[in-house]
């Protein structure tokens, strides 16, 4: 488990698939905040910096070993060593990227300017437009599981026959898995794939995109500048070494990081027991609770508990990652059945959700309820 140790008791398959209540909650966000120990809200620059520099040190260690020793290995062994490095370094990238995500939530320090400066550098280094993502992600937190206004992982409807019929089979599921893991990260930022439908061209790189409001557009330009600088730096590295070397050291791990991001964000917001709501029924707290905590083993620690303490993150996004497990334990008694934890082995869960969470529709006889459930 993550930094807080084992947080949840094992659950049966029947419990895992039990629907989370959709009635209005008997508690408010203020009740949850009161239950969380006060120190969990403290953003310590020293502690946050420790995790950042620890992750950078791990990343550099992987780089040093790969660049200095893998080329010395005989080819049959190097063909095994490189993929191992790609996976380990891609996981390291994801850990640093997750800290950048916390910086966007102002969960790193008490200094907004410092959080934004560090987040801009970190996310640009991984070809992520920092301010663009910060703003769209803030909207995602404000409208989680709203059919009309959520920003990402918008579920399909049965009427979309490409998904509900053509691809709704084992071969289609496998195709969608490959496409998601390899392409969804850049396609989301570039073309808003998996995102909310807008009038006009929606892209995280386009300052006039309808994703953003007028007060945000100047910093979208800055995000684009960060991307241009990052691509130019990569070009210079490729010229100084080779495109093959750059791919092996940076490109392939970046693809692994992209796959990690899509893998766990898909699992955050896809589960047969969690509802989506339209504007007739949606409210913020039920939307925020329509996500799931899962056990990724050692990767809970690598990814800074964004995997196994995601529910509390949606409720109070400024809690630093090193306090989210403790905060989750504190609010679970209040949440009761509104809290969803799934300890299904993670690869099994991913394949189950890929097969079962194809589109959403209301229950039969409740077409006007405003509540939608995943179907296949």
Automatic annotation (TrEMBL):
GO terms for biological process: lipid metabolic process. The keyword Membrane applies. This is Fatty acid desaturase domain-containing protein. Pfam families: FA_desaturase. Keywords: Membrane, Oxidoreductase, Transmembrane, Transmembrane helix. The keyword Membrane applies. One of its GO terms (molecular function) is oxidoreductase activity. The chain crosses the membrane at residues 51-72, 79-99, 171-191, 219-238, 244-267. InterPro entries: FA_desaturase_dom, Fatty_acid_desaturase. Residues 81-340 form the Fatty acid desaturase domain. Belongs to the fatty acid desaturase type 1 family. It comes from Tagetes erecta (African marigold). It is found in: Membrane.
